[in-house]
Amino acid sequence: MKQLLLLPALALGLSACAGSTPPLAAPTINVSGTWVATLAPGATFPQQVFRFTLTQRGHVLSGQAEIVLDPAGAAPPYTYDAFGQVSGIVSGDRFNFTARGTGDFAGSVTLSGTVVENKLTGTWVGFGGQGWSDTGSFSAIPQD
After folding, report:
1. CA 67 – CA 123 distance, rounded (Å)
2. Share of the chain above pLDDT 90, in %
3. DSSP calls for 26-43
């Protein structure tokens, strides 16, 4: 009888572990504000400039993304076009957020990183509506 009780208990314990995610750490950074991000070129994606307006409430990030259509042919101050909504999280000293493009900008770009000397730095991953994907590094400065 003890063997029969052990197997269901073991199965229940393993299934509980398989579906669990680690808890979020208390945020130690605040990324609220407007940031101008330069995404370094990836293998197929050229350098790109985005402006992210972020609101952080605890762990939760939300906001808007805008894009510069031709950053190679433009100099600051840039002209931005609407890109889409931003959603993400902050855990400890790390952030992760995704901007989902709409209309002509079907696709998404996800930025993950931390704050170093009042700059957002880290890596980006992009997926396009035409099936491409790419990755690279980025740096973002606060917009004055």
Report:
1. 17
2. 65
3. PP-----EEEEEEEPP-S
Q: Which amino acid is at 82?
A: A
Q: From CA 144, how far away is CA 142, in angstroms rounded? A: 6
- Could you say which DSSP state residue 132 is in? -
Whether residue 138 contacts residue 122, with contact meaning beta carbons closer than 8 Å, is answered with yes
Q: Taking the domains of the chain in order of start, what are their residue ranges?
A: 24-142
Span 101-116, pLDDT tens digits: 988 888 999 999 999 9
Contacts of 105 (CB under 8 A, 6+ apart): 67, 81, 83, 84
Strands in 58-132 per DSSP E: 60-67, 81-91, 94-101, 107-116, 119-128
Tell whether the torsion through CA atoms of 104, 110, 115 and 120 is positive or negative: negative
CATH 2.40.128.120 is held by the domain 24-142:
yes
